[in-house]
Amino acid sequence: MEREPRYRLAPSILSADFARLGEEVERVVAAGCDLIHFDVMDNHYVPNLTIGPMVCEAIRPRTTAPIDVHLMVKPVDALVPLFAKAGADLISFHPEASEHVDRTLSLIREHGCRAGLALNPATPLHHLDHVMDPLDLILVMSVNPGFGGQSFIPAALDKIAAIRRRIDRHAAETGRTIWLEVDGGIKPANIRAVADAGADTFVAGSAIFGAADADGGYRGVVGRMRAALADAGIEGRAA
Ligand code: DX5
Ligand code: ZN
């Protein structure tokens, strides 16, 4: 059986050059990234407006990397089938944005995608209490959602550690792994601390797309992130 990578890098295309989005996707994957993080904002749940299923469908043929859709929208359910059809592999949403969180998680899985819950900096962990079974991914926001380029909120580290304990307990009981993804303000200088707290999947927008190499590639910054992760010694992570 193929072993999953220990850590995953998920560049957020929110900070990419939208005038050449297909090439940007190809470049971050060529630089060694694992997922394409796709931020969907609706000017209602968050104060910004971005991209929808048509753009997801347009980039789908440009890579085989999984597309990790982060819905910052309210309501959620109507968009799930549209993103599944557009080629999404993972779909996360915020519990405050759905009237029936368990139903929305099931809906995502029924459409063949992996299901995630995204927790804002002030969202309490009790939202996870009764939904560990239908969850494939927990997305911890380390900034308030709505914009790229914000600073990492240090209080996220304790929250990540608490969720890591829940995930490990759940894995011991069920044998099932839930990904722990962190989103917002991640850079080569702090990615190691986020890994040490227990994350296995790292979103980075401005840090990656703001740092093109002379040839327009992103290998330099991705290499620095991988190097910072290389000696983060946590046994059994993301196995
Ligand atoms: C914020 C988005 C993030 C953001 C990350 O609402 O969900 O994915 O684009 O960007 P950086 O890495 O620049 O904080
Ligand atoms: Zn995001």
Word description of this protein:
- The protein has helices spanning 21-30, 53-59, 79-85, 101-110, 156-174, 191-197, 206-209, 219-230, and strands spanning 8-11, 36-41, 67-72, 90-93, 114-119, 137-141, 179-183, 201-204.
- The protein is globular.
- The model has no long low-confidence stretch (mean pLDDT 95).
- An eight-stranded parallel beta sheet has the order 1-8-7-6-5-4-3-2.
- Helices cover 32% and strands 17% of the residues.
- The chain is α/β, with parallel strands linked by helices and 239 residues long.
- It has eight helices and eight strands.
- The structure holds D-xylitol-5-phosphate and zinc ion (ZN).
- Residues 12, 14-15, 37, 39, 70, 143, 145-146, 148-150, 183-186, 203-207 line the site of D-xylitol-5-phosphate (DX5).
- The site of zinc ion has 6 residues, from strand 2.
Features:
single chain, 239 residues, eight-stranded parallel β-sheet, 17% strand, globular, binds D-xylitol-5-phosphate, binds zinc ion
Summarize the structure.
By secondary structure, this protein is of the alpha/beta class. The chain is built from 8 helices and 8 strands; from the N terminus they run βαβαβαβαββαβαβαα.
